[in-house]
Amino acid sequence: MTASPLANGRHLLLTCLRWSLALSLILLVAAGCTRREAFPEESEEEPLDEEAGPKYDGQLLAQVVFDEIDFVVPQQELIQPFIKEFGNGTVVNKVTIHKVQDNKKLPATYYLVGLGIHNGSFRSMALELDVSSDNSLYLSSKSMKHICEATAGCDFCYFTFEDNRITGCQCSIRAAGYDCRHKVQEGNNLLQGVRLKNSGQN
User: What domain of life is recorded for the organism (predicted)?
Assistant: First the structure.
């Protein structure tokens, strides 16, 4: 029996619809894959701030201009932070920055130095400063802390250096029984919680 033209038309229409539906499904799947590739899962990427690491906390204290050290922060403002950093009743009466370059083949090193007295004996503390490309001097909490403590009879201690770095202490009186103790500590809290009036970091 021969199929009628109407039956053939319906069969052709159904076939076209099936192919159209199949093509639509293929396009939807392809689009979904493309979106997943364009927008990766959140777990695939680390946040930018975690990769960057901890923020540098250095504070600007001075600048080197034509080999002269110009304080950006008044030295008087640093006396109380030094007293607190000693933490043992040492009375600090002078703050300065000392340039060290005994080895001319190496870059100079700069130290922020506090000088004082504890129970009649000399005390000094030196903190290494970071030097920027424009010769600005910064103090970071990661800077090494060096302390010189004079024993009885020694009225003054000098820091000793090698390759522009502090290596010890020496009494101004070079005789038996006149000594200075050298203490070293990684990191410092000198400027923790301190707001410096003229610092470029505020």
Answer: Bacteria
Rg for the chain (alpha carbons), in Å? 36
Residue 130 contacts by C-beta under 8 Å, 6 or more apart in sequence? 58, 137, 138, 139, 140, 143
At 40, which amino acid appears?
P
Looking at residue 64, its pLDDT comes to 96
Query: What does the pLDDT read at residue 55?
Result: 85
Query: Tokens for 178?
Result: 């006149």
Phi, psi of 42 (to 5 degrees): -60, -35
- Run of H or E including 169: strand 165-171
Name the E strands within 119-192. Answer: 121-128, 130-131, 136-139, 145-150, 157-162, 165-171, 180-185
For residue 138, the cross-strand partners are: 60, 130
What CA–CA distance (Å, rounded) separates 100 from 60?
19
**3-state secondary structure (DSSP) of residue 78:** helix
Query: Residues 116, 93: contact at Cβ < 8 Å?
Result: yes
110 phi, psi to nearest 5 deg:
-120, 135
Alpha helices, DSSP H, located in the chain: 5-38, 48-52, 79-86
Mean pLDDT by runs of 10 across the 202 residues of the chain is 51 54 51 44 44 80 95 95 96 97 94 96 97 96 96 92 96 89 96 77 46
Calculate the dihedral angle through the C-alpha atoms of 128, 132, 136, 141, rounding to the nearest 10 degrees.
-40
